[in-house]
Small ribosomal subunit biogenesis GTPase RsgA
Amino acid sequence: MTWLSLSMAHVFFPVLLSKGSLPLTSLDLTTLGWDDTFAAELPAGSIPGKIARVHSSGAVVIVDGHEQHIEYSSRITLPCVGDWVAVRDGAILTVLPRRTALVRGGVAEDSLSQTLASNVDVIFVVEPSSLEGRRGDPNLGRIERLLALAWESGAMPVVLLTKSDLVGERIGEIVSNVMGAAPGVDVHPVCSVTGDGVDIVASYLGVGRTAVLVGPSGAGKSTLVNALAEDEVMETQQVRASDGRGRHTTVHRELFVLPRGGLIIDTPGVRRVSLAAGGEGLESVFTDIEEIAENCRFDDCAHIGEPGCAVIEAIETGELPQRRLDSWFKLNREAEWVASRTDARLRQERDRRWKVIHKEMRRSGRNRP
Ligand SMILES: Nc1nc2c(ncn2[C@@H]2O[C@H](COP(=O)(O)OP(=O)(O)OP(=O)(O)O)[C@@H](O)[C@H]2O)c(=O)[nH]1
Ligand SMILES: [Zn+2]
């Protein structure tokens, strides 16, 4: 089978084909991020495959330098984009252990968490510099929430403020506001129209490195992928003029090999992101509050009016914005709720398991001579 006979390849890797100059070995294992640690996990007799796109019934997998659609067989853990899988006889045998995983919580009460992407090195938290149509600055709460997920993933978060052309000189002030919500995280303005800042984004990537873009619909993620790919690889949306809100264009998560090396994964805009696990990432998002709280008189100070509370004092002096403390309270409450829900689910599962074991014991007891 030749490369060009694979019509799929044109859909998923138009960069490689339309550029023409790139060697087909661009899909070799090293480019895709394969290394000795993954190799050590590969079951004997199987070959590695990289998940480029997932559907409900199967996945597009890069195997042996080309793409292949593989339907899931029963009993495998469902892969996500970025996963390494072991492939044998044209089937996915198993998903190799994930080095990092970006997981979001279920949106509905009973829905399960969802892994958006795995084995990424960098998570670009994408937020528009200006919420056009609704006239406003970046949504700091949304950035904090996505940063919590990003820190939990094990990958390095970076905040990108897209569409910097729309805010002109105000960009400096906007960046510094966002930095206040993202201690210890790099914050970069970027404009995919003029290309300003695109090189800085590219500098986080290189051969074998993978980044994922997360952010609301219409933030300009796909446009940025195009700018990085120096080509039109993603279909971008036209924002409706009436309210400035975008329609969802990115339907499937997709993985792209960039011409200058590195992989980038685009995710569909997320309307509502809930925290996934117990909110361990929150500590990293709110290091400023954690630091100030070390000076509270009581070790277990809840910062709700106790005497000698350093956090409240920092609010009064203006060192800490009230918004930041409110956000910290809100996300911590949510994390507690998620944790209790997870606990309840674990308890349920344990009860169910015991029921099965008891039934089995009774049955085998009856069968005993
Ligand atoms: N002015 C300006 N507009 C931009 C820029 N980047 C993207 N846009 C516009 O913003 C709109 C949304 O861009 P997309 O790239 O489709 O947004 P997205 O984040 O991929 O959206 P989803 O696929 O729904 O998640 C499009 O009309 C783009 O042309 C930019 O740097 N400046
Ligand atoms: Zn306190």
